[in-house]
């Protein structure tokens, strides 16, 4: 037997003696035979590296501990039974999760194109000056960043990773980046939506002071704040989630798998879910609900007012003035209806996530792992759909947006057909350009 074999045998014997000493101490203290395996592995590594010539690799340590654990019928402390989110609803959500990768890719590709068109239309001279359109433009920008970053994540997570046995560190690091990046820009989207609702409320409620309250400078401050505030609100998330490791025994040896998970429950864990659920989700949803109801009431009141004017108007000399006023009122109502549709769609997608986050903070890690992770893909799909469908809403509810989009596409079509060159037989006459 070689010197290395003797050294390894001595190390194994020393580690076995250490394991028996720990087990005896556990039994003498009248405790269960369950113990913290991670602490024991650390003790084994310290014991095995006391002498330079007595070194042993981590894989051998893992095999040794697992062998002794099986021999003595020792197990890790059992986690409490978690029965949240059981039943048929779990089967339905799991069935959707299997196709979420393909659904999210389709929604992201469509949403990226749609929001790029939103930015292109809203930056045209006819629309760029209005503060509401500036807020809508930056809302589209935030949604574009979320969807473009989600595409590589969906490809690797749902199309490539399921066929692999390894979970490398690079993937876990990217997953951590993806989590923080999407949360920051999605929170920015929430802040912009909230600014949009408050802006419209002020413009209608205080219409006589609209030129003083709704200025370009205040619009710029609202946009800038919507991108500065999210990283500050997400600080608890930065501190709670990190890359973790799990050791599994494979036939060819132990394998270390890297994954992203939250730290054990503690004060910061609770603060994170309360901030995420209450401050980022539920509070904006409550404010948007109040403002949306008020805007709906204003639209209804405006429609009733127009009906009364049409009924009691008998003076023909004021027809032109009345038509001009009705045209302006209808434009205002269309804009308000479009914004109400945007706000209601936001509530449908964000309110469930806020409720799940609140329950995760109140009920603890068990609910988070059992329910929040289960509904994660569906929540992502709703958020992506919310950011993708705004272009459809603008086209269907805003006549000015449709006209500007039509003009932009028509000009792009004309640029593909350059004017014909003048022939030599034309002399000084200018060649005429025919528009197809």
The N- and C-terminal alpha carbons lie at a distance of: 92 Å
Count of DSSP strands: 2
Strand content: under 5%
User: Average pLDDT across residues?
Assistant: 76
List SSEs in N-to-C order: HHHHHHHHHHHEEHHHHHH
Report low-confidence residues grouped into runs of 5 or more.
6-11, 29-34, 51-55, 419-436
Query: What structural class do the secondary elements suggest?
Result: mainly alpha
Query: Biggest sheet, open or closed, and with what strands and sense?
Result: 2 strands, antiparallel
Helix fraction by DSSP (H/I, runs of at least 4): over 70%
The coarse silhouette is globular
Lateral arrangement of strands in the main beta sheet: 1-2
Q: For the CA atoms, what is the radius of gyration? A: 32 Å
| Helix run count | 17
Topology:
Layout: H1 3-28, H2 37-48, H3 58-71, H4 88-97, H5 100-122, H6 125-128, H7 131-160, H8 169-205, H9 210-213, H10 216-233, H11 235-240, E1 241-250, E2 253-262, H12 267-312, H13 319-363, H14 365-372, H15 376-388, H16 390-397, H17 399-415
Antiparallel strand pairs: 1-2
Helix pairs in contact: 1-2, 2-3, 5-7, 5-15, 7-8, 7-10, 8-10, 8-12, 8-13, 12-13, 13-14, 13-15, 13-16, 16-17
Which key phrases capture this entry?
mainly alpha, two-stranded antiparallel sheet, 436 residues, disordered C terminus
């Amino acid at each position: 037997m070689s010197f290395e074999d003797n050294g390894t045998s001595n190390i194994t014997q020393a580690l076995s003696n250490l394991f028996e000493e720990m087990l005896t101490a556990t039994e003498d203290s009248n405790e269960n035979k369950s113990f913290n395996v991670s602490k024991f592995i650390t003790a084994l590594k310290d014991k095995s590296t006391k002498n330079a010539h007595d070194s042993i690799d981590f894989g051998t340590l893992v095999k040794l501990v697992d062998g002794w654990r099986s021999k003595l019928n020792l197990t890790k402390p059992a986690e409490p039974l978690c029965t949240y989110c059981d039943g048929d609803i779990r089967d339905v959500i799991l069935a959707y999760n299997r196709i979420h990768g393909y659904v999210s890719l389709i929604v992201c590709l469509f949403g990226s194109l749609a929001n790029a068109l939103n930015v292109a239309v809203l930056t045209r001279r006819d629309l760029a000056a209005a503060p509401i359109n500036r807020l809508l433009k930056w809302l589209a920008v935030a949604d574009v960043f979320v969807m473009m970053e989600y595409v590589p994540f969906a490809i690797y997570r749902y199309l490539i990773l399921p066929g692999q046995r390894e979970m490398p560190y690079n993937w876990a690091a990217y997953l951590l980046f993806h989590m923080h990046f999407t949360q920051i820009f999605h929170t920015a989207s929430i802040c912009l939506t909230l600014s949009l609702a408050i802006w419209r409320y002020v413009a209608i409620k205080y219409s006589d002071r609209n030129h003083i309250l709704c200025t370009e400078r205040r619009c710029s401050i609202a946009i800038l704040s919507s991108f500065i505030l999210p990283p500050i609100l997400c600080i608890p998330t930065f501190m709670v989630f990190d890359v973790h490791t799990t050791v599994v025994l494979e036939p060819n040896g132990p394998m270390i798998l890297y994954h992203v998970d939250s730290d054990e429950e503690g004060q910061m864990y609770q603060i994170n879910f309360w901030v995420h659920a209450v401050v980022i989700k539920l509070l904006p949803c409550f404010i948007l609900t109040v403002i949306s109801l008020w805007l709906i009431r204003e639209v209804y009141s405006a429609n009733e007012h127009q009906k009364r004017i049409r009924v009691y108007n008998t003076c023909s000399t004021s027809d032109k003035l009345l038509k001009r006023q009705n045209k302006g009122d209808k434009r205002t109502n269309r804009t308000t209806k479009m914004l109400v549709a945007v706000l209601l769609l936001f509530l449908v997608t964000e309110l469930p996530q806020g409720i799940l986050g609140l329950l995760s903070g109140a009920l603890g890690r068990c609910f988070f792992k059992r329910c929040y992770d289960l509904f994660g893909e569906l929540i992502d799909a709703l958020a992506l759909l919310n950011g993708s469908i705004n272009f459809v809403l603008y086209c269907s509810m805003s006549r000015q947006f449709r006209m500007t989009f039509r003009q932009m596409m028509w000009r792009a079509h004309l640029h593909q057909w350059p004017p014909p060159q003048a022939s030599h037989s034309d002399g000084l006459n200018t060649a005429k350009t025919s528009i197809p």
